[in-house]
Amino acid sequence: xxxxxxxxxxxxxxxxxxxxxxxxxxxxxxxxxxxxxxxxxxxxxxxxxxxxxxxxxxxxxxxxxxxxxxxxxxxxxxxxxxxxxxxxxxxxxxxxxxxxxxxxxxxxxxxxxxxxxxxxxxxxxxxxxxxxxxxxxxxxxxxxxxxxxxxxxxxxxxxxxxxxxxxxxxxxxxxxxxxxxxxxxxxxxxxxxxxxxxxxxxxxxxxxxxxxxxxxxxxxxxxxxxxxxxxxxxxxxxxxxxxxxxxxxxxxxxxxxxxxxxxxxxxxxxxxxxxxxxxxxxxxxxxxxxxxxxxxxxxxxxxxxxxxxxxxxxxxxxxxxxxxxxxxxxxxxxxxxxxxxxxxxxxxxxxxxxxxxxxxxxxxxxxxxxxxxxxxxxxxxxxxxxxxxxxxxxxxxxxxxxxxxxxxxxxxxxxxxxxxxxxxxxxxxxxxxxxxxxxxxxxxxxxxxxxxxxxxxxxxxxx
Length: 463
What we know:
Strands 1-3-2-4-6-5-12-13-9-7-8 form an 11-stranded mixed beta sheet, with helices on both faces. It has a two-stranded antiparallel sheet with strand order 10-11. The protein is of the alpha/beta class. Helices cover 38% and strands 15% of the residues.
C-alpha cells in the first residue's frame, strides 16, 4: 500500500511509531496529486513547496519527541472558501481572482497548530452555490459529477490526493459529495465549528466540517476543530468531548428512527436497497429500529431556499451590482432572484424554521438517531440537469441532491454520511445518520460500528 492510500488513523499510527515519516507521506500525496489532478480537477491551487517545508518541520519535531497529536504531519486539503494567510481564497470564482487572505481562518489555524500539512485549496461550486462542482470530476467515474459544493475536497480524499479535507455545508455540501465519491462526510451541529475566515453562502445555514476516509478519521479532525471563537457570533462553547468512537460495535439500547415516508420517496431502488440493508445491519448490532415520520416535509424546500437565497444575495450585493458578468450564469441567476424576495418572505422562512426545529426536537426525543439515504440517487453524468423518477416526476439535479440533506441545515442538527455500498455501475451510495444537537459522538459511534462490521456486499451490488 502506498502512503497516500492510508487512512488518517493508520497514517497517524505509522508516524507516531516512526514507521512512516511525514515527508514520505506528503511526498506520496503530492505525487498522487500530480498523477490524478489533470483528469479530476480537485484543486484550485497546490501548495507543494509549502507542504514539503511543513513536512520536514514535522519530521524534525517528531524526531525530537515533540508529537502534536494524530494530525501531526498529515496532508490536508481545504475548500477554497477557507482563508489561509497569504493564499488566494477564490471561491472558484472570477470575482475573487485577485483576493489574498490576510490571516488564517480559525479552522485553518487550529489544524496547523495540530500539525496538519496543507497540500492545496480544493474546488467548490462557485461561492458554494450549487450541488455539482462542475470544475471537478467524480473520483469513481470521470464522466460523472463530483457533487457539491465541496466536490474538490471529497474527490481529493477519495482519490488519495489528500488524507483528509475540510468542506462547508449549507444544504448538504459536505454530505452530498462525500456520498457520491464513497467517503465519509460530517456536518457538525450549527455553531460547533467556528466559521471565522470562511466565505459565507448563507450565514444561518453554513457549517464547516471534515471529509475523510473513515468515521474514526472524522472524529480525529472534529476534535481539532471544536471550540468557542468569539469572532463567530454563532459559535458555541461546548463541553470537552472525546469524539473517538472506541473499539466497541454493540449498539444495544440505541433507538434508530427509520422514516416511513419522504426520505424514501423518489429514491433510486438501488440506493434504497443499500440503505435499508445497512439499517438492518445496525439492528443486527443491537439497535432497535423505530418507524418515524419526518415533520413539515412540505415546507423543507421553501424554508431552505427562502433562507439561503436572500442571505446569499445580501452577502454579494455590492459585487453583484458592480460586476455581475464575473459570476457564472447559474450562480448569478440565483443571486438576482434573491433581490426579488421580500422581507416578509424571508421572515416567514425564519418563523417556519423555528417551528421545524421544535418539531425535530420532539422527534429526536423519541429516537437517538435517524437513518436515511444521504442522496436519492448516485452521481449523475456531467451536464445532466434533471432526474426523472419512475412515476414520471421530473426533478432538477440540484433539488434531488439537496432534498434529503437540507433538514439538517435548517434545524442545525448534526449529520454524518457513511458509504454503504455501490450501485450496479459501481457508483457509491451513502447512508445519512442524523442526531440531536451536540450528538456527534453518538453519530460517530453508530457510523464506526457499521464501518467495522459492514457486510462485504449489499443487495444493491447484485444485478
